[in-house]
Specification:
single chain, alpha/beta, 5-stranded parallel sheet, 9 helices, 5 strands, about 40% helix
Length: about 240
């Protein structure tokens, strides 16, 4: 991402409906019956999720971008390191949980299969991998260029990738189907607008009432996902 996007993420991550709902969903799948968990956020961004996780676990963050590391440090996170996942040689069975949100889809990842293989190596035998990736190639737009998304996935694509790396799928669902029409509108407006060399993401400060309404919807969507209610499509997986 460009520097503007990292600054926006840092400024909005604690309150914006998109980030809050995604973190809410991730936290649902962190095991509550295990103590002293060791959790890696692989592609930790500006660190807001790490701050939430660190209240209950030993947390570590990797990111390749200097802006990310600087923002994490600004949040008071000290167990974050600059690391290129393409060149990562993981220790075997080091983590109880690895979280990687919109990372394997990033243009900076040269080999998504290698990334998944390394996650498998780094997880303990009963470890958990939590992924989020952008879904549906038809939703590709200017936003994707701003946040360096190189690939969007169908469910079958992710199933094949996960199976090839010997993970057992506990749950795999599309997220936020009602957001898809809004994305199409954004895509059309982006197409009609004057082209610019600098791309902007769809992340921006939202009116508080609208933000709260979207957050309520997203948390309901999270409830459906956590209960495996098989949403037919969505903007993410």
């Amino acid at each position: 991402m460009n520097e503007i996007e990292y600054q926006k993420m840092y400024d909005l991550e604690e309150t914006h409906w998109w980030f809050k709902s995604l973190h809410h969903l991730v936290l649902k799948f962190i095991p509550k019956d295990r103590k002293n968990l060791s959790i890696l956020d692989a592609g930790c961004g500006t660190g807001n999720l790490l701050t939430k996780l660190s209240k209950h676990s030993s947390t570590f963050g990797y990111d390749y971008n200097n802006n990310s590391i600087a923002f994490c440090k600004k949040r008071g996170l000290d167990k974050v390191w600059k690391r290129d996942l393409n060149k990562w040689n993981p220790k075997m069975a080091e983590f109880d949980c690895i979280i990687s949100l919109d990372v394997i889809s990033d243009k900076g990842i040269k080999n998504e299969k290698l990334a998944l293989s390394n996650f498998h190596i780094a997880l303990k035998e009963d470890g958990i991998l939590i992924l989020n990736v952008p879904a549906l190639p038809v939703l590709r737009r200017r936003h994707d260029k701003a946040v360096t998304i190189k690939k969007r996935y169908f469910k079958k694509d992710l199933i094949n990738l996960i199976d090839a790396n010997h993970f057992k799928i506990e749950i795999l669902e599309y997220r936020l189907p009602l957001i898809v029409p809004l994305i199409f509108i954004s895509k059309v407006l982006g197409f009609l607008s004057k082209k610019s060399e600098v791309y902007r993401s769809d992340v921006f400060k939202v009116n508080k009432v609208i933000n709260n309404l979207l957050l309520v919807y997203c948390k309901f969507d999270n409830f459906l996902i956590s209960n495996k209610m098989n949403l037919p499509f969505g903007s993410s997986l």
